[in-house]
Design goal:
Rossmann fold, alpha/beta, six-stranded parallel sheet
Length: 294
């Protein structure tokens, strides 16, 4: 990876933020990320919203006009646009499930350490976590999870799968052998193992019938019945992206990909009650989202 050494006045340099031009409510996600980046007051930002039909020349004209010295690329469209420059400028990637190989950025995947900490707080009797995952997407995350599990005295059982059929078979085996007093299933952000049309309905039904804890990284999963989820605080993620770019520009060593560490928590109170977890009003106020909506 190229390391860029620049003068102490670097903070006055300009930074382009590339993000997709999307309609509500998804536009609010990128608005909050950009606001988080801007809140750090260490970068002069120049956001550029990208339509599907935008040309490479429009991007280059923007970079020249703003005299940008670095890029923060958000989402798939921002990533595609940034990659057309072929590493001409220092670039940080964010708001993606998977950071491109060889690039630096913050994934949408929630920090396993914080998720396991929340699990121990909500369901302290859990000692074993099963996780089904796509190796091509989440091997890096599972490596972090194994370290976090050891820290919390948890046993992590990772099951790599290559397709939806393998995932369904693996989940059926897990459901058959799980102890609902001590075992939980973790659903990371994963295009195969967390499939919303096949996997999630099956797990929700079976976990309800078997009184089994499931937690994830997606608040909509909680709305549908998962016990709890930890997911990105978009404003905080923007702040973290700004910090990461500062580190890269000043020559500090940075990890190629990091999970989101500024997180919010959603809890399904109906599922919690079904599983025997009853929260006081004070505990509930610590949750950022609760379902069913009150």
């Amino acid at each position: 990876m190229l390391i860029f050494f620049i003068s102490p006045a670097w903070a006055e340099e300009n930074v382009t933020i590339l993000y997709p031009d999307v309609s509500a409510p998804y536009d609010a996600i990128f608005d909050k990320i950009i606001a988080g980046i801007d809140s750090q007051q260490t970068l002069q930002i120049h956001p550029l919203s990208l339509k599907k039909e935008d040309s490479e020349s429009r991007l280059k004209d923007h970079l020249i006009k703003t005299n940008s010295k670095a890029i923060i690329a958000l989402g798939k469209r921002g990533t595609i646009a940034a990659e057309t420059l072929q590493n001409q400028l220092p670039t940080i990637y964010g708001a993606l499930l998977y950071i491109p190989e060889g690039k630096t950025g913050i994934s949408l995947s929630a920090d396993p350490q914080q998720q396991f900490d929340k699990l121990k707080a909500i369901a302290p009797k859990i000692t074993t976590i099963s996780v089904v995952f796509s190796p091509s997407v989440n091997t890096w995350l599972i490596s972090l999870a194994e370290l976090a599990a050891e820290q919390y005295g948890l046993t992590l059982k990772p099951y790599p799968v290559e397709n939806l059929r393998e995932a369904v078979i693996q989940y059926r085996d897990i459901l058959q052998t799980s102890n609902n007093q001590t075992d939980a299933i973790w659903l990371p952000l994963d295009p195969i193992s967390a499939n919303e049309k096949v996997v999630l309905p099956m797990l929700l039904q079976e976990s309800w019938n078997r009184d089994l804890v499931i937690f994830s990284s997606k608040p909509t999963d909680v709305q549908r019945g998962v016990l709890f989820s930890m997911y990105a605080d978009n404003f905080g993620m923007g702040q973290d992206l700004a910090h990461l770019l500062v580190k890269q520009l000043t020559g500090e060593m940075v990890p190629p990909v990091s999970p989101v560490t500024t997180l919010l928590t959603a809890v399904n109170l109906r599922t919690a009650a079904h599983l025997g977890f009853n929260f006081t009003s004070q505990q509930q106020r610590r949750f950022d989202l609760t379902f069913p909506s009150r």
